[in-house]
Design goal:
This protein is mainly β and 341 residues long. The protein has two helices and 18 strands. Helices cover 5% and strands 57% of the residues.
Length: 341
């Protein structure tokens, strides 16, 4: 309640007005941990890093009831490096910044900077939630690597018996739109997901048109989970054309390019004690990336948890270096603490 009142007061001061029908919430995550990373033939990196399990962030989200089942919504989310207090990317609200309208019967429209559906719909498909550095499926699934499009309009349908569809278009996914030819990187994102009972399935298609022409990048992903109670099984496959894999210790680092690559992931997660144990094996054929990862999270409270993970991957690159090849292995071990507010 205090967070909501404080955030509302801040926004009211900025805007000069406040609406009784509106609600605004301040939220965030602080995640810090120790990370050891070692690639064959290179020196090890030992670091106290921010955002091993989840990128540290703070944000504001709000809604206003417009009546007749219609609502106005917004979200502003900034990524931060908790280890030194700096912004994780250029711009203030670099993770997400959108405004939109939603209806219980018609669905939702959002305008602004948003996650593509290849990332949004695969958070639950990956046992690592598409995070935990190289352990996340973003090491071999390009569209699942926490990717966002700026200048985008997206539509989400209502959910019917667990089934939902969505589609989006970006006028320039990486910078401001320009009338000059060859300067706009246009993008399409689309997807379907079904979540009902023990089953969750997602299918997404993402496309990027280079501003300077050339081959269009495409990524088609299919994945699902089945929860048996004592264990949940995870699996995914992707067909990726004319894209570069994002790997290494730096999110968004561009590495090996391939005309076509097939990626696979199989994994499992299960409650163990009070916490959760999870792991996966993933491979990208033409990027020649392959490896396995295991992790464990332990809740200290409803909002705070400790975690540890280990990942052993071939040819995923390394912090500050060129792409590694020749079956060079990168091993990462991390342990840390995450607090959500």
């Amino acid at each position: 309640m205090k967070k909501t009142l404080i955030a509302a007061a801040v926004l009211a001061g900025m805007a000069g007005t406040a609406h009784a029908q509106s609600s605004v919430t301040l939220y965030g995550i602080m995640d810090m941990g120790y990370l050891y990373s070692k690639t064959e033939g290179m020196k090890a990196r030992n670091a106290l890093d921010s955002g091993l399990q989840s990128e540290s962030r703070f944000g504001l989200r709000g809604t206003e009831d417009l009546g007749n089942g219609l609502k106005a919504n917004f979200l502003l989310e900034a990524g931060i490096n908790a280890d030194d207090g700096t912004s994780s990317q250029s711009g203030l609200f670099n993770r997400q910044s959108w405004v939109g309208l939603s209806s219980n019967t018609l669905g939702e429209v959002r305008l602004g900077r948003q996650f593509i559906l290849g990332s949004q719909f695969f958070t639950n498909i990956d046992p690592f939630g598409t995070t935990f550095r190289q352990a996340g499926m973003g090491s071999t699934f390009i569209a699942a690597n926490q990717v966002r499009n700026s200048n985008s309009v997206m539509y989400f349908s209502p959910t019917w018996n667990g089934l939902q569809g969505a589609i989006g278009y970006s006028f320039n996914r990486s910078s401001n739109e320009s009338p000059v030819a060859g300067t706009n990187n246009r993008a399409i994102t689309s997807g379907l997901r079904y979540a009902n009972g023990p089953i969750e399935v997602a299918l997404t298609y993402d496309q990027v048109e280079p501003a300077t022409g050339g081959n269009v990048g495409r990524s088609t992903q299919l994945g699902g989970t089945y929860d048996f109670g004592v264990v949940k099984l995870h699996a995914a496959v992707a067909d990726q054309r004319n894209v570069a894999v994002n790997v290494g210790d730096i999110p968004g680092w561009n590495g090996r390019f391939a005309k076509k690559t097939l990626s696979y992931m199989v994994g499992a997660s299960a409650p163990v004690g009070a916490g959760s144990l999870f792991g996966s094996y993933q491979k990208a054929k033409d990027w020649d990336i392959e490896g396995f990862s295991v992790g464990y999270t332990y809740p200290l409270s409803r909002r705070t948890n400790a975690y540890a993970f280990f990942s052993n991957m071939d040819n995923v690159g390394h912090y500050g270096s060129a792409v590694t090849t020749g079956d060079k292995t990168t091993r990462q071990f991390g342990v840390g603490l995450r607090h959500m507010f």
